Amino acid sequence: MTAAEANKEIDNLMGQGYGTIVIKNPQGKHSLGVGILNRLNLIFEGSLGYFGMGSCDGPIVRINGRVGWSCAENLMAGKVVIEKNAGSCFGAAIRGGDLICKGSVGARTGIDMKGGTIIIGGDAGAFTGFMMQRGRIIILGDVGINLGDSMYDGTIFVGGEIGSYGSDAVDAELTKSDQDWLKRKLKVAEIGENFDVSKMKKIVAGKKLWNYDNLEPTEKKGAI
Amino acid sequence: MAKKKKTKSKAVSLQLGKKKETAREKMIGQSIGYRYDVNLLPDYKKMTPFLKKYVEAMGWDDLNWLEDVHMGYEEGRPAVFCRNANGWVTIPSSIKLPDNQQDRDMIARELLVKFQMSPKHPLVDLKKAYLKF
Asked: Is B34 at the interface with chain A, CB within 8 A?
């Protein structure tokens, strides 16, 4: 069965009213589970290739293996849990929902994200949170160089060591409200329930990159 | 002392979705920056009964995508942004809003979900006209 046929079958089964679907031995195929726009419990017993679970809005997904790059790209709502490691661009441009990887992830995790929460149990690669515009990233392990490079807004929480900060990524104070939310989120994510969140670092945007007010009115009118 | 108090209440009103357009924003014809604190994390103790039922019905453990929904403002009135309709939905003036942003955000989330489930939502007509599969 090809990935397109498998995705069509998921659609057919949902149309018949099935609320839970298990896909056995996905063989690392690419673009599996894309475009699911409704409630569904979906379980993959194996690993996925690239673009798995892309452009979804609502399903609760568990992948009992690894995933390739750009997993859950453009996720709008729902929850995706990966039991092992993930490739680059994990959660690229997500808008909402929870994306959880219990292992480690590659470079550019959460690139261009505009909402939602990405939770990583292990380490994250270089340029994590690159150009993120809002949303939250939680990394329990270490993170590579250029963390939060050119981020416009949003928040990154790191439990381990930071390779280096990217342009305009700055430290912020970890509040009691942050800690309460982190504890709750890690419990829900089934990882790091006993993690000492009080020692986490909080990184936000310095907001030097989007000072629209510096533009001349004529420039602004031309840009609109 | 009285002067100091006046400044404080003005600052609070700016945070609570009553911000008027600045002269600069009028000049360029566009709002500067976001209309609410996008980084404000939800206080789950403030969840409304409706939201608790909604989250349970959806099978989630928390607010999920609604964590990114906040009460902003549109044309000087409190409003919530509906990403499906791609526009601001103003809050009816008959609804009295509390004075803190966490409570206001929870009301915004509840009203947004109700609006999205309403037959008056713009996507209902669009779906009838354009649904392909």
From this structure: yes
Q: Which amino acid is at A113?
A: M
Domains of chain A (ranges; CATH) run 3-223 (2.160.20.60)
pLDDT tens, A86-136? 999 999 999 999 999 999 999 999 999 999 999 999 999 999 999 999 999
Shortest distance between the Cα of B67 and any Cα of chain A, in A, equals: 7
| pTM for this predicted structure | 0.88
Q: In this predicted complex, what is the ipTM? A: 0.90
Instruction: Give the type of residue at A20.
Output: T
At a CB cut-off of 8 Å and minimum separation 6, what does B73 contact? B17, B18, B19, B35, B79
- Whose tokens are 């939310």? That residue is A181
Tell me how close the Cα of A106 comes to any Cα of chain B, in angstroms.
24
Put simply, whether A208 touches B (Cβ < 8 Å) is: no
- Is the Cβ pair B41, A178 closer than 8 Å? yes
